[in-house]
Amino acid sequence: MFADYTWSELGSIFAMQGFAGLILFSVFVLMALGLAIIFGQMGVINMAHGEFMILGAYVTYLCSHIVENYVPSLFGIYFFGAMILAFCASAALGALVEWALIRHLYKRPLDTLLATWGLSLMLQQAYRSIFGAREVGVTLPDWLLGSVSLTDTIEVPINGLFVMALTLVIAVAVYFLMFRSKMGMQTRAVVQNRVMAGAVGINTERVDRKTFALGCGIAGIAGSAFTMIGSTGPTAGQLYIVDTFLIVVFGGAASLLGTIASSFAISQAQSTMEFFLSGSMAKVLTLLTVVGILMLRPEGLFSLKIRR
Amino acid sequence: MTNNGRKTGLGSTRRGVILGAATAAALTAFSQFGVGKAHADDANTTGLAVTADTVKVGILHSVTGTMAISETGSVQAEKLAIEQINAMGGVLGRKIEFVQEDGASDWPTFAEKAKKLLVQDKVAAVFGCWTSASRKAVLPVFEQYNGMLYYPTFYEGLEESPNVIYTGQEATQQILAGIDWVVKEKGAKSFYLLGSDYIWPRTSNKIARKHIEKLGLKVVGEEYYPLGHTQFNSVINKIKLKKPDVIYAIVVGGSNVAFYKQLKAAGIDMTKEKPLLLTISVTEDEILGIGGENIAGAYATMKYFQSLDNDNNKAFVEAFKAKYGDDIVIGDVTQAAYLGPWLWKAAVEKAGSFDIDKIKAASPGIELTTAPEGYVKIHENHHLWSKTRVGHAKADGQYEVVYETKDLMEPNPFPEGYQ
Q: What CA–CA distance (Å, rounded) separates A243 from A117?
């Protein structure tokens, strides 16, 4: 498989594929983090995760439109504002959904699958009615397009670097929120023992709502960022949902670190195989490997050791 | 939109279907009797929903689900054509009424709705379907109940049914002339074939590969990605290393947007034409989602572009914008969908009847001089003779036509030596 290439070409292959893999890794982490919180920590099988992402994308689309038409001078930096708004919109919708739908289903986790799937269909049709069935184009500031060329053959896309940086920021923020803040401590307490957490005075309902909203908000940011690399349409969320669940389940649902490790493993495997095999074949092999490993380790890569 | 199909329990029991059909037939006969029986009978001997002043047709597309994004334009075009025909006095003196059904991007639903249109509504023709999968699903229904389908999308060929008029191009019409052009005008020697992983891109690339190899040139790579794939960095790296003269891309749907955005981000500037990008899957409709600035410089082979400079097209674009707003864009398939009602009208008038069998017989040889794409003609094999054109994508989301074949390309759904 290496015979077709010269040594210098092989060098740039590894460099470029390394970057491609890292970018894919960041994309995976970004789309899976929100779900890791909702599914992993709360046990809600949120099939509408993709639609929360797309809400973020549509918010970005609206921002780009408004800024372009009314305050073009700010166009270069609108993207940051758009991401914050995307977080707020998705988190607000998440809180509403938790109140109206999810909180009635905490004792029936499998039913959340059906309920959120229905929710995803409703949201898709809502997007279609509001924004039209066609995909919308999000205009990006020029500095986000293009690439940095390191040598003749090695070029790194700027939006890829942006996604990497963003992922790092979000991952660190989530870490502090979950493991170093009072809210995180309460969340983990509720996850581990809801009754006891209630008994020591934690308002479990409020914690649930906040946690769910946080997960949805992160999905919104991811959706906003993905307007740079993907499409924005009513059903575009469906493109991400399978990969997202794959990553969270493979990593071990209850572990945030597991999500990151599994993103890394799957992204590297996929981008390497895509290079040497064809696209569809790479996907098949990735899925087969994941299925194989999950058969041997049903709890995923990382699992919490709790006494039951 | 009517929803009666479900209430009468189509497909529940055989007796139910027959009963329903009989009731509908009786009702139709009754209303005809009331209005003027003799007049209607001349043009309709098979119990279609034709009265002395009206004729009923069906529109069957997805307005919900994944495919709504693509099929919306076709619905708009068909409604516009019907409206214009009615304004001109209708067909054989009868106004066209349409029944619209939603295929909901689900192939069994398409089949069910097709049956409803034919059996219950007794429509004289159906304009609809978009994906090959939906067409394959309704084909047995149209053949069993003897209906007429006008199918607008360019597709992979390998099909020919007396009950279907294919108003889009089959694969060879779209591919051969485009490759000839890029070889002759741009001196292309090597090609990288890329596509989404299903029948249309695979069949099309097979034809492209055979043609490229016949010309004595090289295919340096051929690859397929699952539908909905959103990460193309690996294949872009591969393309950079193989340095083909032409990237021949047949990526569809949401993947399309991801592919072009990432191609641009990876530093492949299509305006430099090194490599040149040639596609058969991006119309003006798709550019809306991709963003003109992300695809500027690419070439596409189609039979129709919105920017075509002729009087028919100017009138068509103007009417379309007047009805649907100035921001609307018109892609290849939308124009092909617009032809459907006009071709049906021509066939009915030639046959002097709405009867399906007479329309089938009358269709080959029918010419349309008013088509936005220019002169077209129906071939014996129920496909259209039409020109192939090459467009150059501009940042404003429109194509500039840089080449068109001198003659009409003959439709050849079963190309010998290309399978």
A: 16
Contact A280 B234 (CB under 8 A): no
Residue B397, pLDDT > 80, answer yes
Q: What CA dihedral angle connects A94, A95, A96 and A100, to 10 degrees? A: 100
**CATH 3.30.420.40: does it fit domain B4-169+331-385?**
no
Chain B contact for A281 (CB, 8 A cutoff): no
Determine if residue B248 is left, alpha or beta; phi over 0 gives left, psi from -120 to 50 gives alpha, anything else beta.
Answer: beta
Cα angle A63, A67, A70; round to 5: 135
Residue B178: per-residue pLDDT: 92
The CA distance from A284 to the nearest CA of chain B, in Å, is 10
Q: Which of A101, A64, A99, A59 is nearest to A217 (CA)?
A: A59
Query: For residue B310, how far is the Cα from the chain centroid?
Result: 21
Single-letter amino acid code for the residue at B95: K
Structure tokens at B70: 């693509």
Burial (CB count <10 Å: 0-12, 13-18, 19+), residue B234: buried
What's the alpha-carbon Rg for chain B, to the nearest Å? 22
- Chain A positions touching B228 (Cβ under 8 A) are 238-239
The CATH code that applies to domain B171-302+387-404 is 3.40.50.2300
Domain boundaries, chain B: 4-169+331-385, 171-302+387-404
Q: Which of B105, B130, B231, B239 would you mutate first to test chain A, the one with the most A CBs within 10 A?
A: B231
Q: What is the ipTM of this complex?
A: 0.80
pLDDT tens for chain A, 308 residues: list them: 555 667 777 777 778 888 888 888 998 999 899 998 898 888 888 999 999 999 999 999 999 889 888 888 888 888 899 999 999 999 999 999 999 999 898 888 888 899 999 999 999 989 988 988 777 878 888 788 777 877 766 778 888 888 899 999 999 999 999 889 998 999 889 888 888 999 999 998 999 999 999 999 999 999 998 888 888 888 888 888 888 989 998 988 778 888 999 999 999 888 888 888 877 888 889 899 999 988 988 888 877 665 55
Closest among A91, A61, A66 to A228, alpha carbons compared? A61
Residue A58 structure tokens = 């549509």
Binary contact (B285, A128; C-beta < 8 A): no
Contact criterion met (CB < 8 Å) for B72 and A137: no
User: What are the strands, taking DSSP E only, across B38-133?
Assistant: 54-61, 95-102, 126-128
- Helical H segments across A104-236, by residue range: 109-131, 158-179, 182-192, 194-199, 204-226
A154-189 in b/e form (b: 16+ CB < 10 A) is bbbbbbbbbbbebbeebbeebeebbeeeeebebbbb
A132, two tokens: 């039209």
* Annotated domain spans of chain A: 33-241, 252-308
B318 by Cβ neighbours in 10 Å (0-12 / 13-18 / 19+) ranks as exposed
Indicate the residue type of B144: Q
